[in-house]
């Protein structure tokens, strides 16, 4: 679930992580999506160690959110800011998900139809 913080003409979108670290939340979500895209079983998941691939790609990432800033000259619209921040969050998430997907395919020479 995506949550928002709004402060000083800035909207931040982030995934609700239920107290887990942002890195762990993103690793879990990305790992699950990669498994689905590659039609992998839990045995494949263990064998291919996708979670480690996800961790290696995400470990140096500094932020796990999307931000929308309003120019001081513009009218601040909370709903519009939420939509932009959400889009930026999802773009970032899918970019890293696709990196994990490509690395998994390259590392294990998986040629399943996606």
The structural class is alpha+beta
Radius of gyration equals: 17 Å
| Intertermini distance | 26 Å
Q: Could you describe the largest sheet, including whether it forms a barrel? A: 3 strands, antiparallel
How much of the sequence lies in strands comes to: 5-15%
Order of helices and strands: EEHHHEH
Largest sheet, spatial ordering of strands:
1-2-3
Number of strands: 3
**What is the helix fraction of residues, given as a range?**
55-70%
Give the CA-based shape. Answer: elongated
Figure out the total of helices.
4
- Please mark out the parts with pLDDT under 50 across 5 or more consecutive residues, or reply none: none
Instruction: Quickly count the domains.
Output: 1
| Mean pLDDT across all amino acids | 84
Describe this structure in words.
With 114 residues, the chain is α+β, with helices and mostly antiparallel strands. The protein has one domain. It is built from 4 helices and 3 strands. The protein has helices spanning 22-37, 42-48, 50-58, 78-108; strands at 2-7, 10-15, 65-69. Helix 1 (22-37) packs across helix 3 (50-58) and helix 3 crosses helix 4. The mean pLDDT is 84.
